[in-house]
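Ticket #4471: structure export looks truncated?
Reporter: QA, pipeline team
Priority: medium

Steps to reproduce: submit the single chain below to the structure queue and open the exported record.
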Amino acid sequence: MKISLDYNSPIPLHIQIEEQIREAIKDDEYQNGAKIPNEVSLSKQLGISRSTLRQSINKLVYEGLLTRKKGVGTFVKKAAISSKAQNWLSFSQEMKALGIVPKNYELHVSWVKANKELSMFFNLEENARILKLERLRGNEDIPFVYFVSYFNPRIGLTGNEDFSKPLYDILAHYNSIAKLSKEEISAVKADAFFAQKLEINEGDPILRRKRFVFDPGNRPLEWNDGYYRADSFTYTLEFDREV
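Actual output as written to the record:
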């Protein structure tokens, strides 16, 4: 694996390494779950500390591009079947497309310290201060989703914005355009907090929809967790097969 670093570049070394590994593992030789060089040899080759290298690898492991096997090494994760849902919509757009008038039941804004996951996602130091937005939303009859969003500090949000307005319009005002959304959906049980917010019973099934939003330069803008009443949300994917 060939990696070259520009020590005079304003781009941090761990980001240079991350991007070069990301490109290197696209080669055919790595696409079947091949092992990448171990951290000791790679850090010596590059003349950097293992902690700097580990920061780069941790990011790629988090993104699901690499996987670690304890006592064995780090491997390129075999490509999984995936789909890209084109023209993804914000919650307000989704509701309007269904003829539903969205309603905000609660809205909370606060500044919090980024945990390890958020720090890795936004490329921040752990415990960096970031903006957190919580919204309980639904239709005129019931609240059916609780959103928790975290935003990249580089956007420049102050916390005084009118978050009752469309979120991505607000980001666009700060020249941060939402271009790409990556999503994960899983089923979980409602704890006491979400049961109370969504007006269901504790232990009832809810859907957790994680959305990672990036700008045209593939820089992270938002980490969003949406917790939906299971009886209110259907996720549909449409595939167009070439024939």
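Status: closed, not a bug. The export was complete when the record was re-opened. Leaving a note from the reviewer for reference: Residues 50-62 form the longest helix (13 residues).
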